[in-house]
Amino acid sequence: MIEVERVDYIRVPVTDMDAANRFYGEILGLRRNPDSPADDWVEYEAGNVTLAVMTPHTHEYEFTPLPPGTLAFRVPDVAATRAKLEAAGVEVNEMWDSGVCRGAGLRDPAGNAILLHRRYAP
Q1: How much of the chain exceeds pLDDT 90, in percent?
Q2: What is the pTM of this model?
Q3: Backbone angles phi, psi at 120, to 5 degrees
Q4: DSSP letter string over the chain?
Q5: How are strands ordered across the β-sheet holding 96-97?
Q6: Are 29 and 76 in contact (CB under 8 A)?
Q7: CB contact at 8 A, 30 and 55
């Protein structure tokens, strides 16, 4: 058995770093890590995990968006967050309710699927 301390980062492949930086930094408001290693690998801090937004073609593999629902962002209020994103020009799908949680899906500028999510119980 190995000891996993935490998820250190999730690579988020993108095709346009300017659009990605605007989306993750300005629209979502995630804090950009000042120690990001390069312009083609920018890290954003999202609570307990780092999102490493990067361009695959500069790291020796082809672009493929993340599978659906790979990133699920817990937000205080899904409806309010959806409204803010739509006001910023981001298309967000209709909200859903599973009986345990509420959510809504969207895509970043590269097509990566993201879920806005909030459980009823902590």
Answers
A1: 62
A2: 0.79
A3: -70, -45
A4: --------EEEEE-S-HHHHHIIIIIIS-PEEPTT--BTTEEEEEETTEEEEEE-GGGTTS---PPPTTSEEEE-S-HHHHHHHHHHTT--BPPPEE-SSEEEEEEE-TT--EEEEEEES--
A5: 71-74, 113-119, 101-107, 96-97
A6: no
A7: no
